[in-house]
Recover the amino acids of this structure.
C-alpha cells in the first residue's frame, strides 16, 4: 500500500494523463508538515514497488502531482521498472509525456525495446532521436547496433549507425566495437568483423568471448574454433563462457576429440567447469553421436538440472533410442524434477522418430491440459506433432491438426507438413503447404527446394523449372550439401563430386572398389534421389559421388578399425546414400555413425538404427 499523505485539496489541481489509474487517498492524518514526498522517499517507494505495475503507475501519478516528475533519475527508475516488467506500451507512454527528455532517457527506451525483443521500435526511436536533434552518445550505440543485427533488412541501417559513431569519434569504445563485430558476423561479413576485432586497442576476454560466441551461433563453427586456438596462443586464459562456446562448436561440427582435448586442458588449468560447462560437454557428445559415453557422463553429473535431463532425452531421441528417452522422462519425474517445454520437445521428437503416434498424442494432451505455463505447447511442439503425424502417413490428420491450432501456425509447422508431403509424394497438399511457406518465409531456400523435389519425384519437370526460376528471380540459392569427418584434430569437408582434397585420387579408387563389391551383392543405385531431368547414366554418375560417400571412403582409408566412422551431413541423407552406408558397414565390418539434418543413423552389420524410418 502507498502511504496516504497527499492532501485532498491537491488531488485535482494537476491534470493527469488518461492512461494513469485513479488515485484513491484519504485526507486523514495529513498535517501541514506532510505536503509532499521527498525525492528520497520516492526512490524508496520505487524500489519497494518495482514488481507491481499498478503501484508503479500510482507512483507516477504522485510524481506528477508533487512536481518531482522533472527529476530524471526518478523517471529513469520508472522507465526501467516498466521495461523489466515487459510493459513497453506504458514505458513509451511515459516517455512521450516527458518534456525534452535527455539523451540517457532516449537510451533507456532504446535499450528497453531491444531487451524486450522489439528491434524495429528501437531503430524507430533512434531515428526519431536524430530528427529532434538529440545527439546520441557511447551508451546509445551498443543497443542501436544490437537492434540492427537482429533483422537482415537492417543491414544498411547498421552500416549507417557505424558511419555515425565514427563521425562522433567513439568507434574505439570496446563495447561498441564488440557489438559491431557481432552485427557483421550475423550479416555474414566476416572480413569486416575480423578487421574490427584485429584493430581493437585492447582485446580482452569479453571481446574474445563475444567474437567466438557470435561465430558459434551463426554457423561459422570452423572460424570459432580457429579463434579459440588463437586466443589460447595469445595467452588469454579462457573462462567457463569460452568453454561453453567452444564445446558447442565441437558439437555442431562433430569434433568430439577436439572438444575433449579442450575440456581436458581446461580442467588441468583449474578453469571452473560448472554445471553449465558440464551440460555443454554432455550436449557435445550427444550431437557427435557418442550416446553411450554421453550416458556415462550424465550419470556422473553430481547435480544434474532440467537441462541435463532434457539434453539426454533429446539425445536418445535423435539417436534412435526412443524407448530410453521415454523411460528417462518417467525416471526424471520419479526423482522429483519437473520437466519443461524443452524436455517435452525431446519427448515428442522421440515419438516422431519412432512413429509412436498414440504415445505422442498422450504426451501432447498432457501438456495441453497442464496448468504449468512451462510445459504448455508452443509452436515447436505443434510442429513436432505435425512431423509425427506426417511421417506416419497421416497427412489429412496432420493438416486438420494445423487448422485446429489455437495459435497461428508458423513456417516450422507448415515446413513439417511439406517435408511429410515429400516423403509420401502428396503433390496437392505439398503445394498448399508451399504456398503458405512462400507467404511466411519467402527467402528460405529449403522450403522451395522441398517443393521442387516433390514435382521432380512426380516427373513434373515443368513445375520444377517454375519453382527454380522463382528462386533465381528472388535470389534464393539452394544450400550446397556437404559432409565432414574429424581426423587427427582437423575437419575434412567434402562436397558432391569434390576432387579438391589431397587424397582425392585414392578416395575415388576406394569408392569405385566399394561400389563394384556392393553391386556383386545386389546393390543398385537409387537414382530417384537425383532430382534432375537427365539421362540414367548421368544420374548414376552424380549419385555415386555424393558427399556422404566421399566422406565414408576417406574415413575407411584413414580412421583406424578400432574406432567408429563418424560423418556429419548438413542436409538430410538421401535414400541411395542410406543404402550405400548399410552395405559398407556390412562389407567393412565397421560401425558408421552419421548425423544428418534430422537425426543420427547408426549403421552396423548392414542395419541402420532408424529401421529405415526417418
Amino acid at each position: 500500500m502507498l502511504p496516504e499523505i497527499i492532501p485532498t485539496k491537491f488531488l485535482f489541481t494537476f491534470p493527469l494523463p488518461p492512461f494513469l489509474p485513479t488515485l484513491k487517498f484519504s485526507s486523514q492524518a495529513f498535517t501541514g508538515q506532510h505536503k509532499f514526498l521527498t525525492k528520497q522517499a520516492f526512490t524508496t517507494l520505487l524500489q519497494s514497488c518495482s514488481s507491481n505495475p499498478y503501484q508503479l503507475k500510482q507512483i507516477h501519478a504522485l510524481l506528477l502531482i508533487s512536481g518531482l516528475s522533472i527529476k530524471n533519475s526518478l523517471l529513469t527508475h520508472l522507465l526501467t521498472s516498466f521495461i523489466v516488467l515487459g510493459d513497453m506500451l506504458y514505458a513509451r507512454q511515459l516517455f512521450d509525456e516527458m518534456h525534452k527528455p535527455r539523451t540517457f532517457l532516449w537510451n533507456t527506451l532504446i535499450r528497453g525495446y531491444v531487451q524486450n525483443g522489439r528491434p524495429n521500435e528501437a531503430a524507430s526511436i533512434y531515428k526519431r532521436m536524430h530528427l529532434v536533434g538529440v545527439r546520441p552518445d557511447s551508451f546509445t550505440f551498443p543497443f542501436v547496433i544490437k537492434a540492427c543485427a537482429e533483422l537482415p533488412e537492417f543491414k544498411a541501417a547498421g552500416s549507417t549507425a557505424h558511419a555515425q559513431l565514427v563521425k562522433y569519434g567513439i568507434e574505439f569504445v570496446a563495447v561498441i566495437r564488440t557489438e559491431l563485430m557481432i552485427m557483421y558476423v550475423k550479416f555474414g561479413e566476416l572480413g569486416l568483423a575480423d578487421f574490427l576485432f584485429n584493430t581493437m586497442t585492447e582485446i580482452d576476454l569479453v571481446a574474445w568471448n563475444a567474437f567466438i560466441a557470435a561465430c558459434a551461433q551463426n554457423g561459422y563453427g570452423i572460424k570459432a574454433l580457429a579463434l579459440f586456438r588463437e586466443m589460447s596462443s595469445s595467452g588469454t586464459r579462457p573462462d567457463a563462457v569460452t568453454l561453453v562456446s567452444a564445446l558447442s562448436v565441437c558439437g555442431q561440427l562433430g569434433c568430439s576429440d577436439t572438444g575433449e582435448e579442450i575440456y581436458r586442458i581446461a580442467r588441468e588449468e583449474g578453469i571452473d567447469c560448472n554445471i553449465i560447462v558440464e551440460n555443454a560437454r554432455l550436449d557435445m557428445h550427444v550431437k557427435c553421436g557418442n550416446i553411450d559415453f554421453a550416458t556415462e557422463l550424465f550419470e556422473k553429473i553430481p547435480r544434474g538440472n532440467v537441462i541435463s535431463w532434457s539434453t539426454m532425452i533429446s539425445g536418445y531421441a535423435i539417436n534412435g533410442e526412443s524407448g530410453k528417452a521415454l523411460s528417462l522422462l518417467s525416471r526424471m519425474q520419479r526423482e522429483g524434477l519437473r520437466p519443461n517445454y524443452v524436455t517435452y520437445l525431446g519427448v515428442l521428437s522421440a515419438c516422431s522418430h519412432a512413429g509412436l503416434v498414440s504415445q505422442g498424442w498422450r504426451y501432447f494432451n498432457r501438456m495441453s491440459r497442464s496448468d504449468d505455463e512451462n510445459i504448455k505447447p508452443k509452436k515447436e511442439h505443434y510442429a513436432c506433432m505435425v512431423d509425427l503425424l506426417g511421417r506416419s502417413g497421416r497427412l489429412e490428420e496432420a493438416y486438420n491438426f494445423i487448422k485446429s491450432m489455437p495459435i497461428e501456425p508458423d513456417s516450422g509447422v507448415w515446413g513439417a507438413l511439406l517435408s511429410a508431403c515429400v516423403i509420401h509424394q502428396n503433390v496437392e497438399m505439398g503445394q498448399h503447404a508451399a504456398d503458405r511457406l512462400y507467404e511466411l518465409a519467402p527467402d528460405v531456400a529449403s522450403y522451395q527446394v522441398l517443393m521442387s523435389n516433390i514435382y521432380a519425384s512426380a516427373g513434373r519437370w515443368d513445375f520444377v523449372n517454375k519453382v527454380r526460376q522463382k528462386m533465381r528471380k528472388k535470389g534464393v540459392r539452394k544450400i550446397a550439401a556437404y559432409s565432414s569427418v574429424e581426423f587427427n584434430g582437423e575437419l575434412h569437408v567434402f562436397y558432391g563430386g569434390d576432387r579438391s582434397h589431397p587424397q582425392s585420387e585414392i578416395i575415388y579408387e576406394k569408392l569405385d572398389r566399394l561400389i563394384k563389391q556392393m553391386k556383386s551383392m545386389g546393390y543398385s543405385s537409387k537414382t530417384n534421389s537425383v532430382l534432375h531431368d537427365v539421362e540414367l547414366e548421368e544420374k548414376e554418375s552424380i549419385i555415386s559421388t555424393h558427399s556422404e560417400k566421399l566422406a565414408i571412403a576417406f574415413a575407411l582409408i584413414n580412421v583406424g578399425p578400432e574406432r567408429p566412422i563418424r560423418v556429419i551431413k548438413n542436409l538430410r541423407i538421401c535414400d541411395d546414400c542410406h543404402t550405400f552406408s548399410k552395405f559398407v558397414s556390412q562389407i567393412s565390418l565397421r560401425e558408421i555413425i552419421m548425423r544428418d539434418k534430422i537425426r543420427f543413423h547408426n549403421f552396423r552389420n548392414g542395419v541402420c538404427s532408424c529401421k529405415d524410418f526417418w
Observations:
- Residues 318 and 599 are 5 Å apart (CA to CA).
- The chain is about 60% helix and 5% strand.
- The first strand starts at residue 482 and ends at 487.
